[in-house]
Amino acid sequence: MVKVSVIGATGYAGAELLSILLRHPQAQIAHITSESHTGKKISELYPHLRGLCDMTLESLAEIEKIGSDSEFIFIALPHGHAMDVGLKLEKFPVRIIDLGADYRFSDVSIYEAWYNVEHKHKNAQRVYGLAEIYRNEIREAKIIGNAGCFTTASILALAPLVKHHLIDSNSIIVDAASGVSGAGRGLKLGNHFPELYDNFKAYNVARHRHTPEIEQALKDLSGEETIINFTPHLVPMSRGILATCYASIKEKVSDDMIDAAFQKMYGAEKFIRLLGKNSYPETKFVRGSNFCDIGWHIDERTRRVIILSAIDNLVKGAAGQAVQNFNIAAGFYEGVALEVVPLYP
Fold first, then answer.
1. Nearest CA to 73 among 92, 93, 100, 94?
2. Inter-residue contact 123 to 343 (CB < 8 Å)
3. Is-contact 49 43, C-beta < 8 A?
4. What are the residues whose beta carbons fall under 8 Å from the beta carbon of 130, sequence distance 6 or more?
5. pLDDT score at 189
6. Domains of the chain
7. Which H or E element spans position 294?
8. In the prediction, which pLDDT does 62 show?
9. Which residue numbers in the chain have pLDDT < 70?
């Protein structure tokens, strides 16, 4: 058994993470924390965990004790907080999986520019936590910066075509729509039911913080500087992301070459389901699972390829991906605790 702890267990991602870890046969949950609910039982806040996890929430004031008593720590806190935990545990042998943004960027100046926060742990040895692309690096990493939800759907959709240089990497446009749980559990006017229901809206156009994260991964794959347009949207559903990605196809690139690129990169992947040409992934078919469904189309008139990908933002886009990274880093079979059938209807 591997002793794991969850810092920030009361957000949506933290609670989803607990649900997955509870069914993990090789993980023992040692500590869970919450600064706003210290001393309460997690099942008081999330009654669906009643009788399954009734642990008492601790405070980050005990982080060194938690660190010395854990082999892995999952951090599910807003950006700007994980780096404080990482600094305090720098000399501990514990390994960290951060579900936030603090350790996602190899160049911390990009993080500082987009998040308007000084990075306090600049010299941390970190690895980007998108399993299907950085699996080898994740195995030995001390700190894993779990990929974001929009970025997971977008990068996985584009990666094969960028890697095999089948598209113009500076022609990429991503439109992605997310369920409201991606905004967290905190109360906000825009997430209030009368504001959200029967509505569909874009936000943070041309300035969403997942933009440079997508660009970083695509540059790693292609070796080329990449600039994209990314526009996020909010839809009135609790969970799920559908990303629609557009790019210009290079000269002489055929349907077969595009299909071969997807098959070569993902044909053996456990959690990527290739639906093929002219198919339409839907969020309902991945709900509650760690799957990413991908389909693609070619517009011969414009010579553009359109790739569609669907994930559950709380699972493959957050907690499920974190456990997938944990399984890789701990040397377990990658699908442990994640092989579940999507919830339907």
1. 94
2. no
3. yes
4. 147, 151, 152, 155, 156, 217, 321
5. 85
6. 2-124 (3.40.50.720), 150-313 (3.30.360.10)
7. strand 292-299
8. 94
9. none
- Six token digits for residue 86: 């990482």
CA 281 to chain centre: 18
For residue 265, give both structure tokens. Answer: 């990169």
What 3-state DSSP class applies to 199? coil
DSSP one-letter string for 219-265:
HHHHSS----EEEEEE-SSSS-EEEEEEEEBPTT--HHHHHHHHHHH
Q: Tell me the C-alpha distance between 321 and 42, whole Å.
A: 22
Record the pTM: 0.97
Residues belonging to the chain: 345
φ, ψ of residue 200 to 5 degrees: the values are: -150, 125
Measured in whole angstroms, the distance separating CA 219 from the mean position of its chain's CA atoms is 18
What phi and psi values does residue 99 have, to the nearest 5 degrees? -80, -10
Residue 14, exposed/middle/buried by CB under 10 A (0-12, 13-18, 19+)? buried
Here the tokens at position 164 are 């095999």
Token reading at 133:
């692309």
Question: 299-335 pLDDT, tens per residue?
Answer: 999 999 999 999 999 999 999 999 999 999 999 999 9
Q: Confirm if 247 and 159 have CB atoms less than 8 A apart.
A: no
Both structure tokens of 266: 């993902």
Q: Is 2 helix (H, G, I), strand (E, B) or coil?
A: strand
Output the six-digit token pair for 51.
Answer: 């009788």
State pLDDT tens for residues 21-72.
999 999 999 999 999 999 999 999 999 999 999 999 999 999 999 999 999 9
Pairing of strands 229-234, 173-178: parallel
Return the amino acid letter for 200: F
Q: Which residue has the tokens 């990413």?
A: 292
What angle (nearest 5°) sits at the alpha carbon of residue 47, between those of residues 44 and 53? 80
Which residue has tokens 């969020």? 283
SS3 85: helix
CB within 8 Å of 255: residues ≥ 6 apart: 277, 298
d(CA 7, CA 234): 27
Distance CA 143, CA 104 (A): 10
Question: Which residues are tagged catalytic?
Answer: 149
**Structure tokens that stand for 34 in this block:** 């919450």
Instruction: Name residue 6's beta-bridge partners.
Output: 32, 74
